[in-house]
Amino acid sequence: MTSSATKRVLLAAPRGYCAGVDRAVVAVEQALEHYGAPVYVRKEIVHNKYVVSTLAKRGAIFVDDTDEVPAGARVVFSAHGVSPAVHQAAEERELKTIDATCPLVTKVHKEAVRFAKDDYDILLIGHEGHEEVEGTYGEAPEHIQVVNSPDDVDKVVVRDPDKVVWISQTTLSVDETMETVRRLRELFPSLQDPPSDDICYATQNRQVAVKKLAPECDLVIVVGSANSSNSVRLVEVALEAGARSSYRVDGIGELKDEWFEGVSTVGVTSGASVPEILVEELITALGERGYGEVQEVRTATEDLMFSLPRELRADLKKAGQGPSRPRREGRRSLNVEPV
Ligand code: SF4
């Protein structure tokens, strides 16, 4: 049994909310405040159970697709982005849309459109079925093939091996993606890189931080939902970096006693869609288990902030309410400060 004197927590920083999630969540909050409930949201605004259920209690109605939104009503598109077909379907139903697609996802969409226009074969590295991948794919389905993992590379067939480019989902494991690219390049030596990193700053920063603390940890707990790609990647990255064990939890209700047997050092981090209140609860629960000493392991400082979606900003401005909002530090509870 480990004595409490040797028990400690290493807390990763950065962790939790990224700029794209903050913007999307605030967009729904402000839409509810400005237009009143209900506000429809296509898909989960961000992949986090707590965030979705909190917003639902306040009047957001989450739907799977635009055909579930009453004609003429207002709908918010999630941070993961949508394909042009979704925009068109919304237009046909005369929906009032607020597009909360993260600007860093939009950047990847634009890359896809540009390379398709130049008639490239585009290899989109990402997880088939993930909303972000569906949205990007939908920009140029006749030019894009989805490559799920390094093992998928052999299935790729292109028209001209000298005119191939790869792009990616924003929330992948950096190391696994680079392995996929390495294998693709073996097949297609002229494979072109995207103009800039598609795996976003937040995904990369959270992986770097967890890599730094993982070798010292007997256990790494990642707060995040099962459908949150970047949260699931953090568990994989922790294990690859040397953590003895690692688990993802939505909240403290999922902690298991057996995880803590013989454990001295617990690493803690959270995915980019996770409000800090869930990490705070975990730190308290760990304290109750004797892990009272908490040391932060910081590998970067983030200060990026995106302005609210254009449509919402315009309406807030007309009403004399906006469009500015104070920056909320990336690690925060849901709606704990005025926005
Ligand atoms: S994880 Fe990255 S791409 Fe996704 S919302 Fe956050 S900043 Fe945007």
Please state the CA-atom Rg, rounded to the nearest Å: 21 Å
Mean pLDDT across all amino acids: 94
Main β-sheet, spatial strand arrangement: 10-9-11-1-12
Sequence of secondary-structure elements: EHEHEEHEHEHEEHHEHEEHEH
**Ligands, deduplicated:** iron/sulfur cluster
Q: Distance between termini?
A: 47 Å
Quantity of strands, as a count? 12
The coarse silhouette is: flat
Beta strand %: 15-25%
Unreliable sequence segments = 329-339
> What class would the helix/strand composition place it in?
alpha/beta
Provide a count of the helices. 10
Oligomer: single chain
Give the helix proportion (percent range): 25-40%
Characterize the largest beta sheet: strand count, sense, and whether it forms a barrel: 5 strands, parallel
Can you characterise this structure?
The chain has 10 helices and 12 strands. With 339 residues, it is an alpha/beta fold. Strands 10-9-11-1-12 form a 5-stranded parallel beta sheet, sandwiched between helices. Strands 3-2-4-5 form a 4-stranded parallel beta sheet, sandwiched between helices. It has a 3-stranded parallel beta sheet with strand order 7-6-8, sandwiched between helices. β4, α3 and β5 (96-99) form a beta-alpha-beta unit. α4 (103-117) runs parallel beside α5 and α7 runs parallel beside α8. The longest helix has 17 residues, at 19-35. 46% of the residues are buried. Bound molecules: iron/sulfur cluster. The site of iron/sulfur cluster has 15 residues, from α1, α4 and α7.
